[in-house]
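Q: Could you fold this chain for me?
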Amino acid sequence: MKALVTGATSGIGKCIARSLSRRGWELILTGRNETALNALKQELGNAETITADLSDREQVFMVYRACCEKNIDMLVNNAGYGVFGRFEESDLEDELDMINVNITALHILTKLFLRDFKKRDSGIILNVASVAGFLTGPLLASYYASKNYVLRLSLAIYEELRRDRSNVSITVLCPGPVDTNFNSRAGVSFSAKPISPEEAAEYAVKKALAGKLFAIPGIAVKAASVAQRFVPHKLMSAIVYNIRQAKKTDSGQQK
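A: Sure. Below is the predicted structure, expressed as C-alpha cells.
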C-alpha cells in the first residue's frame, strides 16, 4: 500500500507519515523543506520525496503527475496554515498563498486522485480540516473559512460516494488545538490544552483505515462540534473573537 502525504515535514503530516510507515505503508512525502523531507525519508526508510510549494498551482499538478503512475492507495491532504489578524489589516498576498495551499491544492489533488480511485473502485482520501471548519473565526477569518471549505467539500464527496456504493472512502480530520508550529506561524496561542500531533495523527489514520467520515479526537472537541449548532451565529462569532483576541501573541502574523 502506498500513500501520498502533503505537508509531511512537521506536525500532524509528519506524524501521519510515521503512523502509516509503522503499518508497513510505502510513502511519498511532499513539502517545501527539502532538508526536512530527506531527514524523514531517512528515518522511515520506505519513502520517496517530492519537494513542492503547494501555493503554486503548477507545482500541485507536478506532484500529481509524479504520482499518477505509482498506484497511490491513500491521499493525505495535510498541508495548510493560518494568518492571524483583522481581515482588513492582514497581508493579502499571504492570505492568497494560504488559500492556495488550504483550498486550491487540496481541491486539485482530491479531484484528480478521486477520479483515479473511482476508476478502480478503491482508495482512501484523508483531508485535514479543523474544528474551525464548524465555526466562523474573527481574527482568523480566512483560515476558518478555508477549513469550512475542506469540511463541506469532504461531506459532499462522502455523500456522492455513498450513493454510488463506492468502495472509495473519504475521512475529514477535525481536531481542536494541536501542539504543532501552526500557532507560531499564525501568531496566536492556545485557548485550551492541546493534544499532541502524534495523538491526532494516530486517531486520523485509524478512522481513515476504518472508512469513517469524521475523525474528531477528544470528547470536548466532539461536544463542541455538536453544541455549536445550537448557538446563534452572531453569538458564536463574538465568542470566537473574544477567545482569539485574548490568546493572540506578540509575534504577529507569520507564514
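A (continued): The longest helix spans residues 92-120.
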